[in-house]
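Q: Structure tokens for this one, please.
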Amino acid sequence: MELKPGYKQTEVGVIPEGWDCVHIGDVAETSSGATPPRAKQQEYFDRGTTLWVKTLDLNNSSILETDECVTPSALQQTSLRLYPSGSVLVAMYGGFNQIGRTGMLTKDATINQALTAIRPDQSRLSSRLLLNYLNFRVEYWKSVASSSRKDPNITGRDVREFPIPLPPLREQEAAGEALQDIEDQILMFGELIDKKTKIKQAAMQELLTGKRRLPGFEGEWEVKRLGEICEIGMGRTPSRLDERMWGSGHPWLSIADLQKKVVSESKEQITEIAAALMSIVRKGTLLMSFKLSIGRLCFAGCDLFTNEAICSFNRLTANPDYLYYALGRTDFSLYGKQAVKGYTLNKESLNLVEVELPSQDEQTAIATVLSDMDSELLDLEARCEKCPRAQAGDDARAAYRQDAAEMKISTILDHIDNGHIALPEFQRGYVWNRDQLRGLFDSLYKRHLVDGLLVWATESQPGTLAYDFADPDTGEQRAVFDLAWPNGIQEELSQPVAVLLNEGEETLGIASAAGYRCFTTPAAFKTYVVREILSVPMPG
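A: Here is the predicted structure, written as tokens:
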């Protein structure tokens, strides 16, 4: 294939003439860590303050905390060494799901022997870009590991010989920052989920106790026992010795199947022969586990059967959705009998469980509010799960909070002076009077907690999460885009962009017809930013 002018073929693929192709060992130092003797747990680990990174601490992103820390004695008396902030870590063994996992230190830390630490020459190689490139090429590690003679693994030599493209440092830093910004935008889904979850928990606490009443409702609540408002049914397990009982046919739930609000599928099924000997649970029935993992609740998504650790609430005189939320905050230990593994419930004790009940109409209203909150959370969680690195969300949010918490007021004012931070019109003097302004700065001076400051950087155009796309003529909402730049990433210089993860053809069609450049995977979106916004060719 003929190369475009200004490009060359290398070990990592076609790259610009101005780039180099090097091995990690050419531009970085590498070494692995150690594990202090566990026999000296108290001396080497207990109350340790220095991070000690293991494979499971790796998150393919910035590392802010670890499961274990080590003490100064461990550093002084063992072969542990301290690696500086900016070191990039790679997992060398632990199975195919672990090999090639990465992380970047944000503070000095130690590591165990399953990891290789890469300490880039910062004058030649950006840690951030190296981290992203290693994540981009994670499948390479698996191909290397599969060729090992023993258990799958990679070695320090494999890491040193790993080929990478090497742009000029300025381009590395720009690309690394751009990729991190994109990732942060996607990970912000997690922060929104946290916020919505807390709002829901507060609403449950108030609405299910009568501390806050919905508009139009008044009057006393009454306390009733489950035995007064329903008939409690029990499941059973067909004989494991009779093969005729087990096979395709009917869903049969165990506690492990109770993972969602509505459950229709089970790990095991029973046959028609077994079903004929059991009581069926009808679609829409409220179910609850009352042994081992007590208090798991769900609704039957179809006609099904359950084992003897799950009960069903039949002939309910209360609103089933309301009861779902009310039982979800019930302390069942008050009704259980002590057993070897905690406490246990039976049909007799379940009948005695007390529930606070408002009128039927208020039950329905409360359940509707909480169900709407659940639907919103499920939608956000589904969007978040589409992101391949959503598991790093907690770390990214913690980093954001840490950076914000450590920013000095003088630094904020400097950012305002140089135009990096702008003051929005709604925060100007006609909204805040002088007493309020004095109170704000007095609180800052006394180091009181500030809930938040609204800021934006003038250099970039942030995308909008869960962007509501409306018909420009009628104003009617037509779709919700996971992440969108309606004016382009480079405002008015590039076309509108929408990231649509696992959306249907209808949403894709709406976005495309409106002139949006659509991306259905984070990888495709990152490639677009690097190649067309930053004008940096991707390797390969």
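A few notes: Residues 388-406, 424-430, 455-460, 536-540 have pLDDT under 50 and may be disordered. Residues 169-207 form the longest helix (39 residues).
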